[in-house]
Amino acid sequence: MAHDLRGFEFKNLTRKQCPLTYDDPYTWSLNLFEGLLAITGLTLNCPLIILTHTISTIPLGQKRLLASQVINFVLLCAFQLARNVYLLIAVYNPCLNIMNTISCKLQEFPLLFCYIHGAILSMLIALQTIPEYVYKSKKHGFRSTTCSVWQACIAVLAASIALFFTAFDADVNPREMNRCFLLLAVRQTEFAFILITGLIFIYTATRQLFLLNSLKNILVPEGVGWHLCFLISGVVILYRYLALEPCLPCIDRILEVSFVALPLALAAIHPILLVCNLPSFREAINEAFPVVGNMLPEYMPVPELPRSQSHLPCDPKGLIKKSALRRSATNNNNPTDNNNDPSAITVDNLEEF
What we know:
Region (Disordered): 328-353
Keywords: Membrane, Transmembrane, Transmembrane helix
Number of domains: 2
CATH topology of the largest domain: Rhopdopsin 7-helix transmembrane proteins
CATH architecture of the largest domain: Up-down Bundle
Distance between the termini: 86 Å
Low-confidence stretches: 1-12, 337-353
Number of helices: 14
Shape: elongated
Transmembrane segments: 36-58, 70-89, 109-127, 148-168, 191-212, 224-242, 254-276
Number of strands: 2
Largest sheet: 2 strands, antiparallel
Strand content: under 5%
Mean pLDDT: 76
């Protein structure tokens, strides 16, 4: 049911005039699940912020970027947890949900900043695994102040991009919204598609780099997850602008899963991937939290590969060796025939093959 609120003044609204949009069991279950994911992400990521700076076996630049990525996930979880608490309060006063596209974009600005900032950090961590970059970093070195300046520049760049997609949107006549979604609040269609395409491209480049370099067991699964989030969101937005009579409740529910719930799941999985795949993080966890360290799977020693003699011929079935041993035994019984038989093969002359 459509609710036209243009004739009302927000200060004079009552509960009967404000629609309650969070009264179905599906929305309540999804919001509860998002809250649990946000709390889990905060619980797992906050200790890693301190532990990352105590690790001495990781280069300084890479350590700072990994710490920034963990902080970004903490901000994402904290923002979504605050959003869920706000929705819980809005149940008792439905008029709090009434907003327009401008206020929605202002509210979703921190969420967009976290998405863009995390994508840029993932790409920079991928670039650090290139051998040419590693050689230059070892040759010139980095100071802690230099890393801090770079971190500030990355944050300013991400904030500028997020501001471009929110503040520079041509929203002359704001439209009322019952539920706030950033992709639906952007009035210029090309802005929404450029944003989603750019984020997908950044994670695609990161995935291609990590396929050939280290840390691929951490950020490749995350890159695939981000691809899934933005791809589903892009398909929903395309359907929203092309369909003549779109299903608005379906769009809201799918966007809630793809643009909110899945990123929270990635934020909760990130510290688990770090600890399970990087031995330095694993050792730091064992020292700080021995109980948690005992729950992690242990690394098994890799057995040493057998050394092969490259000068011997390829003989997978051992036929040459068996033939040589047979001829050697025959020659020992008939020592005079060994000099007369030019095709005799012994263990000593296997190298001729």
